[in-house]
Amino acid sequence: MSVPTAAASPTGRAAGRPGRTASRRREAIAGLLFVLPTIVIFVVFKFIPIGGAGAMSLTQYRLNGDVTFLGAENYTRLFADPHFWQSLGVTLGYVCIFVPLIIVVSLVGALLLNRLVRASGVFRALLFVPYLSSFVLAGIIWKWIFAADGPLNAALDGVGLGPVPFLTGEAWLVLASLAMVAAWKGFGYSMLIFLAGLKAQPAEVHEAARIDGAGNWKSFWHITLPLLKPVVFFVLVIETIVGFQVFDTIYVMTGGGPARASYSLIYFLFDQGFRFFDFGYAAAIGIVLFAIVLILSLIQRRFFEGKDEQ
Amino acid sequence: MTRRHLRLAAVAAAGALALTACASNGASTAPAEDGEVSGEVTMWMYPVIKDEAASKEFWAGAEADFEEEHPGVDLTIELQPFAKRDEQISAALAANSGPDLALVTPDMAATYLNVGGVQPVGEAIDDPDVFYPSTIEAGTFDGEVYGVPIFQNIATNVVNTKVFADAGLEIPDTWDDVLEAAPVLAEQGIAVMDYAGTTEQTLNLSFYPFLWQAGGSVFTDDGTDVAFDSKEGVAALEFLVDLQEMGGLPADSATASITIEGSPWAAGKVGIHTNGLPAELAPLRAAVGGEGVEAALPFEDEIRATFGNPGLMALTSINKQQNREAAYAVLEFLSSKEFQTELSVASGNFSSRTDVPAPGEGADYETLEAALEYAIPGEPNPAARQVMAALAPYIQSALRGELSPEEALDQAADEARGILDRN
């Protein structure tokens, strides 16, 4: 976006209208001042740490502050490390379960709320409550629920289906259990975004569809969902990033186990940094994760833009 | 920019500077005028006293007592959980905003020393001769002492005697006895012993005692290589895997946590709780009705061995020169006879001082005292904690039947050797 200013105008028009130019300059400065806090926050808390992590990833950094420049050694070591590939596989598996799950749950929640005529505010608040709790708290509660002698297994036992080793069984079951907890905890946020998208849809389009005889299902597939596409893209990107960053629930519920079945990329990073004190290597993992998420987001964006053009 | 804008900017800048000044309130304090030691010291303590309320009361009292003796020092004792202690301390050290003093094990001290996370504390020890020599030696590296011993821990077996009496079995004392009793008890749905396989548990209190009993060690004598993949290591893991297969361990041992409540022990389904600590005796007894529970010596195979370590209070790299004397004063207080006597009684642990009596009387304390003879304080290699983190998931894999004991230890050793190379 370009902002016309006197400096950017070589025609001399500005010189002919000094009052208007000064007013525009003041507006530009005021606008800049308004966004300045956000820019400062982004630079201080996002860009500088990313740059710092990038720099640290090229070094061996010790707790006492000693730094040795290693060049790309941390990266070559990382790509040859079987635990990196294993944790990447675990993370991808988790994302593949978590992202569709949370999108479906939030969309269903939003559709139901959108249909409510009375007390929608109360239900909206109730469904949003899990989002306000901490991942650690959610993890502790669900660890108890999933335990061999927990209430869920007691209920499953009652109907002859238990006990199920939710957090100690096969890798897919452990990841699915963790994804379920994260979806329960996080769906409120995406649900509100979907709800806002649904509320913004023009009522007359749905009305016309109803007059043309479209049922609920057809209306959803051919009108509601296509109109929601930008919102779905936004939620998809956000939740994919959340999925790749999974750590808290794993830390509390499984500790990366059993036998590294839930050893995600961030857990791998945490281990390298805070258990092995290999901060340069941990920073390299962080940078690679950043690159993966960035590339995935760009692919998703391109995919959705392509669909839009069609 | 108008004058109004400039004024606003100036006010904002002044406010920001004021906030920055508030935020940078460091721990430094000026020395008191009368020469009294002064400063601020933060200490991280862990639940060595198992009862939470009693622990809070004890440490609040200790803080008050110390500050009464040293009015110029502001001591803050923060109680932390044992779970993920390593990560908490290292994250704090990395952020340069953690405790001046932290309770560590000898192998943790060695690991932190390797990365510059701890500092010598020799100057805080007036008379090393009042301590059991082993407690000082455990925290001594290259001739420097890196931890003041404030108590001695000892892990040993805790037996539910009723289980064995009901089955008409002798209480197992050796691995052979355990393997003999296991199938008999398994028929009744009882595991002969438990094993906390969760990766949250230090291997010092799970796999390593069995490794030592088999005659093995984690590291070679010179500490340059790992040795747990030896035939002794394989024998130790095979012992556990064999027990798991014959029902001699609870079904979830590969991932079992260290909690007593809700555990197979509490349900009366375990004969021997392995690697029990003195402070756990009372809750273990209470969990099965208050009777028929006694401490026993650790198992014997090639040798009789267990984990027993001094609790070392380490001076971290967070502590700066201006608070050094204050931190030393806290260490002197913690190592005094009066304090260690009180801590010993409150925690049930033995003192690190030779002039403090055992924390209690009776058969349990006689056994615990006897077990001290077989105590190994871990293997304080600089890479000890990293190797432990690498090895633990492979032991889980073996107990889950995903890898054979040899495969598990071979793969773990490969990974551990990479860690040693980088160290």
UniProtKB/TrEMBL annotation, chain A:
Organism: Agromyces agglutinans
GO BP term, pick one: transmembrane transport
GO cellular component entries: plasma membrane
Lipid biosynthesis as UniProt keyword: no
Region (Disordered): 1-22
Domain ABC transmembrane type-1 residue range list: 88-300
Keyword annotations from UniProtKB, A to Z: Cell membrane, Membrane, Transmembrane, Transmembrane helix, Transport
Location in the cell: Cell membrane
Pfam families the UniProt entry points to: BPD_transp_1
Upper classification of the organism: Bacteria, Bacillati, Actinomycetota, Actinomycetes, Micrococcales
Family: Belongs to the binding-protein-dependent transport system permease family.
Positions of transmembrane segments: 28-48, 92-113, 125-146, 166-184, 227-247, 279-299
InterPro entries, alphabetized: ABC_transporter_permease, MetI-like, MetI-like_sf
Domain of life of the organism encoding this protein: Bacteria
Descriptive protein name: ABC transporter permease subunit
Gene3D superfamilies: MetI-like (1.10.3720.10)
The UniProt record lists the keyword rRNA-binding: no
Primary residence: membrane
Topology class, membrane: Multi-pass membrane protein
Automatic annotation (TrEMBL), chain B:
GO cellular component: ATP-binding cassette (ABC) transporter complex, substrate-binding subunit-containing
Signal peptide bounds: 1-23
GO terms of molecular function: maltose binding
InterPro entries with a match to the protein in the record: SBP (IPR006059)
Domain of life: Bacteria
One Pfam short name: SBP_bac_1
GO biological process, one term: maltose transport
Keywords attached to this entry: Signal, Transport
Family: Belongs to the bacterial solute-binding protein 1 family.
Name of the protein this chain belongs to: Extracellular solute-binding protein
Lineage, top ranks: Bacteria, Bacillati, Actinomycetota, Actinomycetes, Micrococcales
